[in-house]
Amino acid sequence: MASHSERNREYFDSMAARYHTEPWIQEGVAMIAEGVDGHRDWIGIDPSNVKNDQPSHKRSIRLLDFACGPGIISQVLGPHVSQVRGIDVSEKMIEEYNKSAIAQEKGKEFMHAVQGDLLDPAGADKKLDLPDLYEFDLAVVSLAMHHFEDPDLAVRRIGERLKKGSGVLLVIDFLDGSSNEESIFQRVAKGHKVLTPAENEKLNALPAAQRQRIETALNGATPTIKNPAFSKARMEELFKNNGFGKNFEFLTLEGNFERMGVFSTKLFMSKAQLS
Ligand SMILES: C[S@@+](CC[C@H](N)C(=O)[O-])C[C@H]1O[C@@H](n2cnc3c(N)ncnc32)[C@H](O)[C@@H]1O
Q1: What homologous superfamily does CATH list for 3-177+226-273?
Q2: What's the gap in Å between 9 CA and the centre of ligand 1?
Q3: Residue with CA nearest ligand 1 atom 1
Q4: Atom 19 of ligand 1: nearest residue by CA position
Q5: Mean pLDDT of 43-56
Q6: What is the number of the ligand 1 atom nearest to the C-alpha of 5?
Q7: Cα 49 to ligand 1 centre (Å)
Q8: Residue 240: its pLDDT value, please?
Q9: How far is the centre of ligand 1, averaged over its atoms, from the C-alpha of 93 (Å)?
Q10: What is the mean pLDDT of the chain?
Q11: SS3 sequence, the chain?
């Protein structure tokens, strides 16, 4: 496994169990769930395509939830697609994903996630060489692109898993320039952890235990982050340069994501189709 992926695996293994309990993560995840659910049409999972007598989950849409974590995207879109597969580099995240209610209830054939590293520059992990990890209609990468060493490689490798000429990739991530939050990661990475007065005020208002968790999270997460945020222009270029030359779209989600309860930032959703 490439060393940056290994760093991500270690960090996310260590925090998989508390992903669902940390309040700021819950709030962020709820914001994404609402944003995705409210934009199903825009994403291409159009409720008007569903015949009245046909339950939406019977429609043939195969979804890849890449860097799925415990599976928020799979939970939200699962009821509207025919099959879901998750891939993540963290074994512990995969355990959480496969334990989830919807995966249990509908069974492995319908929803299942697999551990592996698709992003090794030397070649994708052989564990991911399974026939049902190809030919997807839609892939979603939520809150993970900023962790990848090489986003261009990620987009290309995901593109190889989609249906040629029609597959769509949706990316949800932090909007560049929407906060000074990326600078905190850069400052921490360089060992100059200086908070702005506004950040300090928010931090000091938090209970000591939460401040301690933020400190730990900042120190743990910083080395896993390669591109803290993305602009619209960067997303367009990322898609175009890597095979997704059709139907580029970009929107900003309403509201702010209060990352770690202190660093206010905005999220975007962007998608494009394979050329
Ligand atoms: C912040 S979590 C997001 C999880 C989920 N997509 C969500 O929206 O809640 C980032 C995820 O990216 C995964 N990840 C990081 N690097 C990866 C890689 N090289 N391949 C696959 N998954 C990776 C982590 O293990 C983690 O589960």
Answers
A1: Vaccinia Virus protein VP39 (3.40.50.150)
A2: 9
A3: 143
A4: 5
A5: 57
A6: 19
A7: 31
A8: 98
A9: 8
A10: 88
A11: CCHHHHHHHHHHHHHHHHCCCCHHHHHHHHHHHHHHHCCHHHHCCCHHHCCCCCCHHHCCCEEEEECCCCCHHHHHHHHHCCEEEEEECCHHHHHHHHHCHHHHHHCCCCEEEEECCCCCCCCCCHHHCCHHHCCECEEEEECCHHHCCCHHHHHHHHHCCECCCCCEEEEEEEECCCCCHHHHHHHHHCCCCCCCHHHHHHHHCCCHHHHHHHHHHHHHHHHHCCCCCECHHHHHHHHHCCCCCEEEEEEECCCCEEECCCEEECEEEEEEECC
Choose from 55-59, 186-190, 238-242 the range with maximum mean pLDDT.
Answer: 238-242
pLDDT in tens, 219-236: 888 889 888 889 999 999
Global pTM reads: 0.91
Ligand 1 centroid distance, CA of 209 (Å): 26
Atom of ligand 1 nearest to the CA of 12: 25
- Give the whole-number percent of the chain exceeding pLDDT 70: 88
pLDDT at 50 over 60: no
* Domain definitions of the chain by residue range: 3-177+226-273
Ligand 1 site, CB within 6 A: 5, 8, 12, 29, 32, 67-69, 72-73, 88-90, 93, 117-119, 142-144, 147-148
Q: State the distance from the centre of ligand 1 to the C-alpha of 56, rounded, in angstroms.
A: 27
Mean pLDDT of 261-274: 90
